[in-house]
Amino acid sequence: MSVGGIGGVDRVMALRAQILERNSALQRANQAASSPVETAAKPASFADTLEGALKSVNDGQQRASALSEQYERGETIDIAKVMLARQEASVGFEATLQVRNKLLSAYKDIMSMPV
């Protein structure tokens, strides 16, 4: 089964991006509906934001691993739920790698600047 070469891969990646965007929009809407009273949040530091993002990625990977183990043991877990959790963990990890690469690139650029 072929997806039609490079153009097909681009279409699949575009469809994947749309699905992820809709999923995040639904999650944001769900969070807004569950907590209508918002408190004034203090501005988060970069380190806190980065730490929160890394914890979120780690939690996603642990959840995917747990679901995979449950499925492998024969527990009544839907394969679609397992695959979705694994894909979400994969996307989170890929995004983390891209952020790391950008941070390293920015660090190298700053360090190579003449003083």
Can you put this structure into words, describing what you see?
This protein has 115 residues and is an all-alpha fold. The model has no long low-confidence stretch (mean pLDDT 84). The protein contains 3 helices and no strands. Helix 2 (46-72) packs antiparallel against helix 3.
Total beta strands: 0
Tally the helices.
3
* Average pLDDT taken over every residue: 84
Radius of gyration: 19 Å
- Outline the low-pLDDT stretches: none
The CA-CA distance between the termini, in Å, is 57 Å
H/E element order? HHH
Q: How would a crystallographer describe the biggest sheet? A: none
Structural class: mainly alpha
Proportion of residues in β-strands: under 5%
Instruction: Estimate percent helicity.
Output: over 70%
Outline, from the CA principal axes? Answer: extended
Give a brief rundown of this model:
With 115 residues, this protein is mostly helical. Helices cover 78% and strands 0% of the residues.
SSE arrangement:
Layout: H1 5-34, H2 46-72, H3 79-111
Helix pairs in contact: 2-3
